Amino acid sequence: xxxxxxxxxxxxxxxxxxxxxxxxxxxxxxxxxxxxxxxxxxxxxxxxxxxxxxxxxxxxxxxxxxxxxxxxxxxxxxxxxxxxxxxxxxxxxxxxxxxxxxxxxxxxxxxxxxxxxxxxxxxxxxxxxxxxxxxxxxx
Length: 139
Ligand code: IDP
Ligand code: MG
Known about the structure:
- The longest helix has 11 residues, at 122-132.
- This protein is α+β, with helices and mostly antiparallel strands.
- The protein has one domain: Alpha-Beta Plaits, CATH 3.30.70.
- The chain has helices at 12-16, 20-29, 44-50, 60-67, 82-90, 103-107, 122-132; strands at 5-10, 33-40, 72-78, 116-118.
- Strands 2-3-1-4 form a four-stranded antiparallel sheet.
- Inosine-5'-diphosphate binds at residues 54, 59, 62-63, 93, 111-112, 114, 117, 120.
- Inosine-5'-diphosphate binds next to helix 4.
């Protein structure tokens, strides 16, 4: 059964480009409540851990370098059907394939530098939220 939480990151390209506020506004306007939020930066080691599921993929090194290249915003979001509805809001991984009006269509530069992360399952939403936030930071 779908739960009501997902996890997101506003990635380094979007923060560097000054799109943090616009993306948070889109998230709130779409009905997501921000449960936990952190402005932080991953080391390469932490980025490697977060994306360990992709370590055999050819873009893994590039992804780790990019995700540790500057500050990000990490957040836990709440809404009915959160995981699926958030994937709809952000659009396809490759902005060239993302639907009009999605966050990636509006703000992503490329398939790699694609502005936002969204969890792909309830299970990963919980794992990813726990990666960033202690039990005292999850409301
Ligand atoms: P997702 O973020 O839409 O779930 P995934 O396939 O889980 O996409 O890939 C994780 C992240 O890895 C993407 O968001 C993107 O930043 C990066 N990535 C995915 N595919 C490529 C690629 O072909 N080249 C470079 N980076 C990629
Ligand atoms: Mg993914």
